[in-house]
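Quick one, T. Sequence first:
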Amino acid sequence: MTPRMPLSAHASATLVLGLPLVGSSLAQMALHVADTVMMGWYGVAPLAALVLGSSSFFILYVFGSGFAKAVLPLVAQARATGDEAQVRRDARMGLWLSAGFGALIYPVFWYSGPILRTLHQTEEVAALAEAYLRIAGLGMVPALWIAVLQSWLAALGRTQAVLWVTLVALGLNVALNWALIFGNWGAPELGVRGAAIATVLVQIAAMVILAAYATWLPALRPYRLFRRFWRMDGPALRGVFRLGWPIGLTGIAEGGMFEASAIMMGWVGTVELAAHGIALEAAAVAFMVHVGLSSAATIRVAGFAGARDARALRDAAGVALALSLVVALAVTAAFVIWPEAIIGLFVDQAKPGSSGILAFGVVLLAVAALFQLADAMQVMALGLLRGVQDTRVPMALAAVSYWGIGIPASYVLAFPLGYGGVGLWFGLTLGLVAAGGSLMLRFWLLAPKPGVAPEPSL
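Structure tokens:
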């Protein structure tokens, strides 16, 4: 019998994998923030177009990135069983599916103007957003390939490379934005088109760097990632597709709940909507930490599932949850103790209306403190379930929680019951609690028990 791994060793291994992924997630968020801030310096209409265009791109990206997220547990499990060929095949078919999705979805970007006008966007903003998306859409395939390569490298324990490439991309993005948006350093002044070009160039550069690293690093050469890249592998293609599309739809279900909450908060009032956006940004920073830990949990659980070590699998899951709990409690304390300071980071208090935003944002952070545990629980549970290759039932549970409970509860509490923006956030909390509780129960019922061999495919 294999000796039981100490819990401290599980914690150390999870942090070694997870901390670089946390940093990478935060750097990815910083990319979006940098684009928004720099376009805000350029003009109001271009900023609105960038926000609209980038959010539209992101929604489609979330769906397509499900294939990349599927690569993570598949490769981790293949690695645990010593199947180098399967490690290559799963990643290669993930790249195939990502390329196919990017090509199929591009017409949506090209004809985005009429779509946005149908959604009652102003002519100026719709035209600028279309110009942005026609260029940015060319980066969908590189962006998804980056996600696949990051998953592949992370599953092989190369999470620090993922972090460093993301940081390089952040620096390059800021420099190219400075040149192409504003016309600095002898470059043409392109405004929102410049932001799109900068994004695509950064995505291509990051993709090339990751591909070169995966190909030329001596420790990774035995996997021969791009060997016979043109050859389709039917079983691997079906495996990545089967696991990936529910992950994509789960992401859209969660993102859709928060998009719907923004629309409803706009019905409450402009000040409330501004405070809502700021409070969500603050909560998103904490969420990125859980995303990184969740990916680490996926890798470790998938590895132990491949090795058929039920005890280690359950211990690894428990330790990952404990680490996430510590983060959630720390964030909750910060939101309760320093709400004014946190909201104040996002508000120029010298401007008219800022006092109202600050006051309401403080109230929303108090509610956000309540849902920290639920938010951490649902993202960690999704990561653990992906580790045991369970994605379709979690997709259904998430959809019911977010759209069947969260959104209706938000509407009822905010409007018929008259609690306004605070009621809306309590509704979001109910949706997250339902998702976290049902998904966590699903994992612990599904996870193999010591002494009982796990199923080869769940």
